[in-house]
Every structure is written in C-alpha cells, then in structure tokens.
Task: structure prediction
Amino acid sequence: MVREVIGFLGGRGTVVDMTVGAGGHAEALLEAGVGLLVGVDRDPSALALASERLAMFGQRFRPVHARFSEIDANVADRAIDGVLLDLGVSSMQLDQPDRGFSYREDGPLDMRMDREGPSAADLVNGMPQGELADLIFEFGQEPKSRRIASAIVRARSRSPIETTDQLAGIVVGAVGRRPGGPHPARRTFQALRIAVNRELEELAASLPQAVELLTPGGRVVVIAYHSLEDRIAKQTFRADDRVAVLTKRPLQPSEDEVRANPRARSAKLRAAERVAKVQEAA
Ligand SMILES: C[S@@+](CC[C@H](N)C(=O)[O-])C[C@H]1O[C@@H](n2cnc3c(N)ncnc32)[C@H](O)[C@@H]1O
Result:
C-alpha cells in the first residue's frame, strides 16, 4: 500500500520505518522527499539488504537493529514526524527455507525473526497440549486446533519435531487436505510465528511509545495483516487522546495491488495524527 503510505508520510522531515524489511516503503518515502529515514528491523539480514538498497541516499537513511518495542531507547534523541509499521513477516523471510517460516518448503522449524529466544521447534516440542491448542486457536483462528495439538503431542512422543515438513505433515495427517483449498497448516504456522516473535505484545508496547515520540501533526501508520493486530491498532488509537484518527475505516489494497501481490490481500491500514498538547486546566 505504498501510495497510501506516501499520502500520509511523504515529504516529512524525519520518519521512522519500524519494519524496514527489504526497504520497499523506505525507498518510496525517501524518493517522496522524506528528509531522514530511520529504518528499524529486528532481523539483521533484512537490515543488511535495506542498507544496500538505500545506500544511494547516503546519510538520509539510518539503519537501526532493534525490536520496535525498544523504539524510544533508539530514536528519543530527535523529533519524529512520522512512524510506519508494516507488520508481520516479509516475503524475503517467507521465501528462505532455512528461516523455517514456510510450510511450502522444508527447513528447520525456527521462525525467529532475530534468531534469539525460543524457536517454533521449542514451542512445538515443549508446550503442554492444552496451551498449544489455545495458541493455535487464538493466534491462528484455527477451529481444528485441538485435533492438531493432540496430533503434535502424539508425534513428539515418538521423536522431536524439528522441521517444517514434519510439522506440515502432522497437521495434514490430523485434519486432511481439501483439493484446491488452502494448505491446512497455514493457520498453525501463522499462530506459531506470532507466538515465537511475541508479535502482539510488540505492537501493543510500541504504539504508545511511537505516539509519544511524534511532534504535533506527526503521523503513525500501521499496516496489519491479522485481525488481532488490526484490533490493537484500532483500540489503541481510539483510546489515546494524544492522537486524532485519520482513517475512520481501515484502508485496504486495491484489486490491482492484490493481483500484483497476493500477500497484500488481508492488509488493513490505519493512520492517526498527533494533536497539539491540551493545556491542563489550572
Ligand atoms: C512486512 S515486512 C516489512 C516490509 C517493508 N515494509 C518493505 O517495504 O520491504 C515486516 C518486517 O518487520 C520486521 N519486524 C517484525 N516485527 C518486528 C519488531 N517487533 N521489531 C522490529 N522489526 C520487526 C520483520 O523482520 C520484517 O522484516
């Protein structure tokens, strides 16, 4: 949703792209006249790619390796006119089998964006069955979560589940596969990724910090791909009297954009603007 992002943030002084990824939005923002773009990512390999792509902008691009929940510790030294969060996993991460995000190709069951902390294999092999089922139900919105968790626990009692192929096979064995339908492991993989990277906690912690850093008139733009993320953005903006909501309803990609990039299908964009400080009554 590059056009919409430019509409909200183009031409501003300092913008923090908290999910710089391969640098697509960042490049468009720099081309649209943003003075300084601080590009944050928790994945060092994404940051290396973005730095290479954006080298032509010299000092106007500043890469920062951090989680976006740590944003105020990393950019508190300057006035911020815009913040962008384009959430979730990047195509680059999905397409690298060794990162373990995808059920389409075999790889280690990892899913850690920054390769720190417990991996998806640690969760799948170590969580009690009930907790695993709840996680798959809540984060994956998977109605067959109990059947899947039970199959996982049966399989791991024979040998540890270490690869994406093993997990995808266990899910298919538990719930079957409809010809022409979506892959049955899709929701389970999504749930594990969200849990491994603590994606909802990260978002909930970072939005109030982002708002605090904004100058009056500064804007925060969130692109969510999951209804739970979108709900956090919607409720945080509504409840925060430091911002005015700019998108009554979330913006969604055009049919053309979805045709060109099917992964954009579920995207919802919300934006809010920092208002001037309200004077406390004496
Ligand atoms: C959808 S991609 C962003 C793509 C980017 N907008 C572009 O145009 O190339 C999301 C990126 O956010 C990063 N990310 C996800 N959660 C993060 C977090 N809590 N802190 C920092 N980066 C995060 C991921 O590593 C990934 O590179």
About this structure: The beta strands are 14-17, 36-41, 61-65, 80-86, 214-224, 243-245, 268-274. The mean pLDDT is 94. The two ends are 45 Å apart (CA to CA).
